[in-house]
Every structure is written in C-alpha cells, then in structure tokens.
Amino acid sequence: MHEELYKNLREFLDKLPGGYPETPTGVEIKILKKLFTPEDAELTLNLRQTPETPAEISKRTGIPEKKLAEKLEDMALRGLIFRVREGDQRKYQAVQFIVGIYEFQLATIDREFCEYVEEYFPYLGMSFMPLETKQLRVAPIDAAIDAMPEVATYNKIRDLVKQQKLIAMVPCICRKEQGIMGKPCDRPKELCFSFGEFAQYTLDNKVGRQLTVEEALKMLDLAEESALVLQPSNTQELSWICSCCGCCCGGLRRMKMMENPADYVRSYYTATIDADLCTACGTCLDRCQIDAIKENGEVMEVDPARCIGCGLCVPTCPVEAVSLFEKAGVVTPPKDLNEMMDRLSKERGLA
C-alpha cells in the first residue's frame, strides 16, 4: 500500500543535492515508511528547496493555511523538513537525508532505524565518493597549526567559532546510534555544534542546548582532549562542526576500510613524523582515528594515503616530532551552504 507514493518520495529526495539513491534491497523505502506517514510524504512532495511561509505553500497546494501551518510545524519537530525562523515568521522547506533528516532524528532514533541506516549507508556513501564537493571537510585542531606562519581563515576553527552569534550543542547521532547497536563509545556524547539557522532549528526542536562562545571554546578543548576529528560543514561560513571518532562516525568507519582514505576526504593538511626525533612511544598511534600511523622499526610513520590532516597527533607528541604541512593544490571551500549545495547539484547533474 502506498508503494508508488514512497517511490516518488525517494525520487524527490534523490533530486536534492545530497541524493537518496535506490538500492537492490529496498531499505531506503523502509526508512521512508518508518519516518513519513503517507500524509507526510504527500506534503513533502509539494515543498521546495527554498523556505516558504505556510501562506505561500497553502496557495500552491490548496490546503487551508491554519491546518497546513500546524502540519508543517509537526513535521519540522520530527526532523522531516527544515524550519527557518525570521522573527515571529516561520518558513519551511524540503531537506535532504544527509546532512539533514538523519541527523534530525536524535529524539526518536531506535534499534530498527539504526539497523536500516547501517544497511543503507554503504550505498549512500558510494554515491558521494565520485563528487568533488563534499558536505564535510576535516579542519585541523588549533594546537596543530598555532606555529604555522600562515593559515587560511577557514581552517582557524576557534576564530570562526568566536564570530558566531548563535551556537547550539547537540548529541552526536553517530555515537548514539552505535550505543543503541550495542557498540558504546566512551568518548563524550554531546560534542557536535550547530550555528545560525541550524542552531535555531535544534533549539526549537529541543534536541540541543545553547552555548556561549566561551562555553563552545571549552567544548572544542574537550574534543581535542578526547581525540575527536573536527569535521565542519565544507563552507567558509560555518553551519555545523561534527566531532568524530573512528569507531562511531559513519564516514570515518567506512574510510578506515579503504587503502587511501585521504583521496575521499576534503582536507588541507597531512602529518609527518621526524624520524630523528621520534621515540616510538605510540601516543600518536593511539590518537589517530583513521589508522594512518604505523610502527616502522624504532619510529612511527605516517601513511600519506591515509592521513586526513586532523592534527590530533601533533600537540601530544612528547618530543615534538609530529607536524602538519599543507597539501598542494587545495581547493577553497564554498562560501556558504547555498554555494555548497549549488556545487553538489551541478556535479550530480541536477542543475
């Protein structure tokens, strides 16, 4: 029942920048049926990628505005569509599955949903791999680049956070998912940041808590201490920062299985170890989340095909043998989320 409706919803989501590919198992439809009622699905198919007021959507759909406004807000609260607040006015738009619907399920995630997405993510990940533009990038921790004479402003995460007017902290959906799946992680659960409109959305949905700039900087310190990779939105103007571990993060877990993860991650640095200084203590080995460091005789060695330039190995080296150097030919991130989505759409042949 309603099979054609959910097929249409799948195709609709696949035409959004992040995509929602079909699979041979049909698990992508199971996810949609779990999240969207038929009424939800019908309404989503009538939404646009840009925010509109209930009055504008009512005019196009014929649904009475008051009833429609209540339904749109209900769907936004369930993480199925995105809400933008402009003062007292609320606008709504369709939102992609990743980054979007999946991350917005913090309040309702259960074992069945986790099993579905674990089955689906390899297919979704394969669809991302050929794209030049990524939705996330790896940013080096500040302690790894402090001594560098010149660092691009978009890689100075602490400076970018200081510029934010609205910051929210949310639990990590990946660590929550892995906990539900019986693979708990001992790292802090609440260490992912959202900013601006994303922060307002999470606060309105009561899945995040507001932080001051000073509190956010302390949480960045905790992320560094916990050996978490900083993966902000692949934009110069921040929308979010994920703090990722190699045992839970869906992206890092799959990258670890590859021989050359550096080729598929947008990053700007690579680590190197001075063999003359290294004492093979293993501290860097323990902190690496992508298995890019190995022991080679009496020294540690970085595999540049695996290193993603997060810098976690740099400040904790007791003999200062580890450092980062900038990759050649790096591409400047898109200015903002709109530009990033435009690039993704063009690369996927949607624009």
From TrEMBL:
Sorted UniProt keywords: Iron, Iron-sulfur, Metal-binding
Q: Which domain of life is it from?
A: Bacteria
Q: Does the keyword Coiled coil apply?
A: no
Record GO terms (molecular function): iron-sulfur cluster binding; metal ion binding
Domain annotation 4Fe-4S ferredoxin-type: ranges: 269-297, 298-327
Record's protein name? 4Fe-4S ferredoxin
State the species of origin: Abyssobacteria bacterium (strain SURF_5)
